[in-house]
Design brief:
Layout: H1 3-31, H2 38-48, E1 55-56, H3 57-63, H4 71-80, E2 84-88, E3 96-100, H5 102-122, H6 128-142
Antiparallel strand pairs: 1-3, 2-3
């Protein structure tokens, strides 16, 4: 790799990390008044996406954005908040099924417009074509891992 390309590669990585931290901070602030962390919000959205079907802990973990999260602990917190319920699977007693509650769905419905507005704010001034290009670039990077 040429020296110039190496410098650009380093800048891309550093700027991506800075951008990720900034976006995380913005979303954290938006979720905080509702008593949720980003990881908890992510789990709720995964469970909502199950459309009322049971989701296993493994299924949720595989779809988490933050792979290093302790999904069991996050789910336990959501259960304490009555946003998720855990039931033993009828066919396999070792398997635990997770479901989002009506209260969890209601909270997500409230948060949808708040997060939509925050995402609009974060991407303000970026053209649609630029967003498509950036997404294509990120997918290219992610495809290697």
């Amino acid at each position: 790799m040429t020296n110039d390309k190496q410098k650009l590669a380093r800048e891309l990585v550093v700027q991506s990390m800075r951008t990720s931290q900034m976006i995380t901070a913005e979303l954290t602030c938006a979720l905080h008044p509702h008593g949720l962390t980003i990881q908890q919000f992510n789990v709720l959205r995964i469970l909502r996406g199950s459309n009322g079907e049971a989701a296993s802990l493994q299924y949720v973990t595989e779809r988490m954005i933050h792979k290093m999260s302790n999904t069991t602990r996050i789910v336990d917190k959501l259960i304490e908040k009555n946003l998720v319920v855990r039931k033993q699977c009828a066919e396999n007693r070792r398997k635990i099924d997770l479901f989002i509650t009506t209260q969890g769905l209601s909270l997500l419905n409230t948060l949808d417009s708040i997060i939509d507005e925050k995402e609009k704010e974060i991407t303000h001034g970026i053209q649609t074509a630029e967003i498509h290009q950036l997404l294509a670039t990120y997918r290219k990077i992610q495809s290697k891992y």
